[in-house]
Structure formats: C-alpha cells, structure tokens
C-alpha cells in the first residue's frame, strides 16, 4: 500500500512473524505492527512505510489459532471478508500474546464496563 505509513507513537505491539503470502502461498518473515486501527506487515524492521499488508481492524471477523501448532512455531489466523491471513509465531507464548493484543483491539470499549 504505497503512501501508507505508521507513526511510532501509534504502535501498540510489534515483532517478527512469518506470514503466508497472498498469491504465491510462500512463507515470509515480516515485521508486524499493531495499532489501534490497523494490523500491518512490513518487509523490514523500523521502516513503517509502504506495508506489504494492511488490515483495518474494524474489518476483522475473527482471530483463531491452530491447536495442532503448539510445536516450535505456533500459527494463528486473522480473517476478514476479503482474506484469510495465516501467521506463524516463534513460540505458542508469542502467538498467544499477539492473539490477546489483537483481540483487545477488536472488542468495543463498552465490553469492559
């Protein structure tokens, strides 16, 4: 998405994940960033311009894990109407951390009242 950028102060959570490419279905290590409005992936760390993927969190339908992937890597899935994006974290702990942080951003504030 050319021209799109994230400001450092907007970032809630960031780190490397392995992401399955949309078209070639190859797995690529990407720097992923979560903000209050977006989940983005970038080719490199600390360059928050021209993301390879941008998901508006208000378009997200679900976040789910693959219970069979509790080995050395741990996969999870972010689903929107337009795409299903599989991601792989280095450990189940990191997967759970990403899923929890994504989930908190998806819940309306009044859910916590």
TrEMBL record:
Domain PH intervals = 10-107
Q: List, alphabetically, the Pfam families matched.
A: PH (PF00169)
Instruction: Read off the InterPro entries from this record.
Output: PH-like_dom_sf, PH_domain
Transmembrane residue ranges: none
Write down the Gene3D superfamilies for this protein, in alphabetical order.
Pleckstrin-homology domain (PH domain)/Phosphotyrosine-binding domain (PTB) (2.30.29.30)
Q: What is the recorded name of this protein?
A: PH1 protein
Whose protein is this, by species?
A: Symbiodinium pilosum (Dinoflagellate)
Q: Gene encoding this polypeptide?
A: PH1
């Amino acid at each position: 998405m050319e021209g799109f950028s994230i400001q450092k102060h907007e970032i809630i959570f960031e780190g490397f994940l392995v992401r399955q490419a949309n078209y070639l279905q190859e797995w690529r290590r990407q720097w992923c960033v979560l903000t209050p409005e977006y989940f983005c992936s970038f080719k490199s760390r600390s360059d928050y311009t021209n993301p390879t993927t941008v998901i508006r969190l208000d378009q997200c339908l679900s976040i789910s894990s693959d219970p069979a992937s509790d080995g050395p890597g741990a996969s999870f899935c972010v689903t929107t109407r337009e795409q299903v994006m599989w991601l792989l974290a280095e450990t189940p702990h990191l997967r759970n951390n990403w899923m929890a942080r994504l989930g908190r951003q998806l819940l309306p504030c009044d859910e916590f009242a």
